[in-house]
Structure formats: structure tokens, C-alpha cells
Inverse folding.
């Protein structure tokens, strides 16, 4: 093999001498590859989605119409296996459905969809991160960090102006993925999120509602919320859903990346909660089961699922071309 390589190398000068055009072609190819490698190394962001506002609104209307068709199919499925919601089990034995079959992520994100953070538990699917990659006042809230901050680090590295506000009473800060060059764009408190405030002197765990945290931070709008709070999501989100539905106003955030923990919830209760979520303006554009729990306990149902939602009410960077 070594002799063959030497023979090939020795032949190259003679080839270039007899065919000088190869020299030009090789040189152009190498230069092109060089600049492509530079571009790949320094530009990991998507281009801003080239929608006109009229075209984007038309697309959103079409996919919303398709989503309403799915709601009708959900009612048909309830009738088939119920026929009422109270007669349906979340995870029945020897039946051809689980609760997740009634709530597919059928809304179409109008932009690129990217996995942000690591593969497996911890990473989330985000719609159109390119829409906020250069936004100066971009705000991200992260509830439930544990020891993995790959999602938060990925958001920061892919954007120029986003700041991440992290909350988790089980740890003292972000994980090692938040490096020194990213830390100045983060804020952390060992608090939890809940439906009502509970952070007095007698409260061991300091709990804040989402609205209280926004007021404390001086925020009126959040671009992305990531939430993995082991079942506390229902109370925390129900409170803000009610506040904004009653006020007839759009929710104060653009996207929600949520790990859902059904626990002991009944199908009837969960359906009602989901319909409130829809009424508030959230539409699921991605879902995947989280089956890690099944590795630790035998004979438990798949009670965890990851969902990503887009807020289709109001005006935000993900649903309107305002820039």
C-alpha cells in the first residue's frame, strides 16, 4: 500500500504538466471547499424564513382549518371507545388506543423545526428559532433544569440576543453546558412555578406563578417557555390560561415546550384541560413519547410525553412577519 501511494504521488506532477487545466480545476475546487468549511464552522443558524405577512397568514389559516378537522376526528374516536369521555381510560389494557392517540401534534409549524438540546430526555423541538436568532430583546423561560442545560445552552449559542431565565428548586444553578461565554445571558433562581404564589418565610420551597415571575423580571412577553416540572405543569398553566381567556387576550408567550406527566389524571379531566389549552390559542406541532420512566419501573404505562406548542393568537415572530 505504501509503495502504491508513493507511485500515485510521483505521477501527480506529470499529470498536471500534461493537463494544466487540472491545476486550475483543482485549485478552484480547493478554494470552494475552504470557504464552504468556514461558512459551516461559523454559521450554524437558519436564514430568517422568507414569508410575506399575507402568505404567512394564509398558511396559518389553512393549517388551522386542518386542525379543526382533527378535533372532529377526536370526537369520533371518543364516541367509538366511550361513547362519553368519562368511559374512556387513559391507558386501557388490550385496547387499541392510549390517551396520546386522541391528541396528536397535527398543527404545521410554518418554519424550520429543529431539535434544540441533546437527544433523549432534555432536548426539545422548536419551531422557527431562526425567527428570533437576532432579536435583541428575546426572552426564554426554563422551568425544571435538573442537571442538564443542553437546551438552554443550544438556544443561547444559536441566537445573539436571547436571555434565559431558569428556575428549579432542586438544583443550585444551570448545568455545565452553560459555559463562561454564555453565562452573562442567563439568570437563575432556585424557585418553582405554580398556580399561586407561595414564597413566604414559612415556605420551604419558594413557588411563583408565571405572571408573578414576569412582573418581577419586568417582562410582558416571553418568546419560548420550556417546562418540565413533574406534574406541576397543570396547575401552573391552568392559572395563566384562565387569566388570559377571561381577559380575552392572547397568551404572553410565543411557544411552549412541555413535558406532560399524566399521573393519576382521568381522561375526562385531561380532555377538559387540553380543550382549555386549545381555547387559549396553543396548537401542538410536535410530540414524542418519553419512555425513560419505563426503564426504571415495571408495568407502568407511558404516562410521559413531550409536546411542543405554537401560540396562534395575537402577533409574535413565529406567526406574523412583523420585522
Amino acid at each position: 500500500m505504501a509503495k502504491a501511494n508513493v507511485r500515485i504521488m510521483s505521477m501527480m506532477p506529470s499529470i498536471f504538466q500534461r493537463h494544466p487545466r487540472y491545476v486550475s480545476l483543482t485549485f478552484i475546487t480547493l478554494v470552494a471547499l475552504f470557504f464552504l468549511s468556514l461558512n459551516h464552522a461559523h454559521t450554524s443558524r437558519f436564514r430568517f424564513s422568507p414569508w410575506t405577512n399575507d402568505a404567512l397568514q394564509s398558511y396559518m389559516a389553512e393549517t388551522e382549518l386542518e386542525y379543526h378537522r382533527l378535533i372532529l376526528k377526536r370526537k369520533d374516536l371518543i364516541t367509538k371507545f366511550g361513547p362519553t369521555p368519562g368511559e374512556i381510560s387513559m391507558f386501557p389494557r388490550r385496547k387499541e388506543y392510549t390517551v396520546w392517540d386522541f391528541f396528536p401534534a397535527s398543527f404545521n409549524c410554518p418554519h424550520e423545526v429543529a431539535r434544540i438540546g441533546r437527544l433523549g430526555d432534555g432536548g426539545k423541538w422548536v419551531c422557527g428559532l431562526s425567527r428570533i436568532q437576532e432579536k435583541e430583546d428575546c426572552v426564554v423561560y426554563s422551568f425544571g433544569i435538573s442537571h442538564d442545560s443542553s437546551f438552554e445552552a443550544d438556544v443561547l449559542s444559536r441566537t445573539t440576543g436571547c436571555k434565559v431565565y431558569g428556575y428549579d428548586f432542586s438544583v443550585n444553578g444551570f448545568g455545565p453546558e452553560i459555559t463562561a461565554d454564555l453565562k452573562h445571558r442567563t439568570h437563575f433562581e432556585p424557585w418553582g412555578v405554580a398556580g399561586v404564589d407561595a414564597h413566604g418565610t414559612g415556605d420551604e420551597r419558594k413557588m411563583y406563578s408565571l405572571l408573578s415571575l414576569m412582573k418581577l423580571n419586568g417582562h410582558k412577553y416571553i418568546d419560548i417557555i420550556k417546562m418540565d416540572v413533574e406534574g406541576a405543569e397543570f396547575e401552573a398553566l391552568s392559572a395563566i390560561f384562565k387569566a388570559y381567556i377571561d381577559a380575552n387576550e392572547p397568551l404572553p408567550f410565543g411557544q411552549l415546550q412541555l413535558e406532560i406527566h399524566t399521573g393519576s389524571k382521568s381522561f375526562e379531566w385531561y380532555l377538559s384541560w387540553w380543550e382549555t389549552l386549545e381555547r387559549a390559542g396553543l396548537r401542538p406541532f410536535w410530540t414524542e413519547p418519553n419512555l425513560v420512566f419505563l426503564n426504571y419501573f415495571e408495568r407502568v404505562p407511558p404516562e410521559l410525553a413531550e409536546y411542543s406548542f405554537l401560540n396562534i393568537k395575537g402577533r409574535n415572530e413565529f406567526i406574523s412577519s412583523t420585522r
